[in-house]
Automatic annotation (TrEMBL):
N-acetyltransferase domain residues: 13-161
Record-given protein name: GNAT family N-acetyltransferase
InterPro entries: Acyl_CoA_acyltransferase (IPR016181), GNAT_dom (IPR000182), YpeA/RimI_acetyltransf (IPR050680)
PROSITE patterns, per database record: GNAT
Keyword Acyltransferase listed: yes
Superkingdom of source: Bacteria
Organism of this sequence: Microvirga thermotolerans
Organism taxonomic ancestry: Bacteria, Pseudomonadati, Pseudomonadota, Alphaproteobacteria, Hyphomicrobiales
Length: 161
């Protein structure tokens, strides 16, 4: 099913493109969500490349994003590299709105297929992606190194827009 036409922004929520100026904030949000966070320099490098697209979730009148999604788009395909929300915004359905808006933007850029990978034990993320129509395309056993030194399986998923 196409995501086109599915997105509506509720009052007090704004989704907007992000540039390199947001790198520090994205690194802080990422660090709150992942065992292996990316640095602000890594975000600045990615955000400075033309092939990367980032959207931020802004709540209320805040000038800083409370969440973000970052993708790499090449021709008619894209890969979602990471998506994260600040702890205070999790569990409120805002990741759905953010992802829907991002997918709409990718579709407007001519993207027809979106790929991603996610840890097989990340139930909230799996529910989000499956709820948006992503389907499992493969498994990478032992792909992620966890904080405790164990390894977790990555699921690869894809969605046709």
């Amino acid at each position: 099913m196409s995501v086109l036409g599915r997105f509506l922004q509720p009052p007090g929520i704004r989704i907007a493109p992000l540039g390199t100026e947001a790198a520090g904030r994205l690194a802080a949000i990422h660090a709150s969500a992942f065992a292996r966070p990316w640095s602000s320099l890594e975000f600045a490098r990615l955000l400075g490349e033309r092939s990367h697209v980032a959207d931020g979730l802004f709540v209320g009148r805040s000038a800083e994003p409370s969440g973000f999604v970052l993708s790499r788009a090449v021709l008619d395909e894209a890969e979602i590299l990471t998506i994260a929300l600040a702890p205070a915004e999790r569990g409120r359905g805002r990741s759905r709105r953010l992802l829907d808006a991002h997918l709409e933007g990718l579709a407007r850029r001519g993207v027809r297929r979106v790929h991603l990978e996610v840890e097989d034990a990340n139930r909230p993320a799996l529910a989000l992606y499956r709820g948006r129509g992503f389907r499992e395309t493969g498994r990478r056993p032992g792909y992620y190194l966890k904080e405790d030194g164990t390894r977790a399986t990555a699921l690869t998923m894809a969605l046709d827009l």
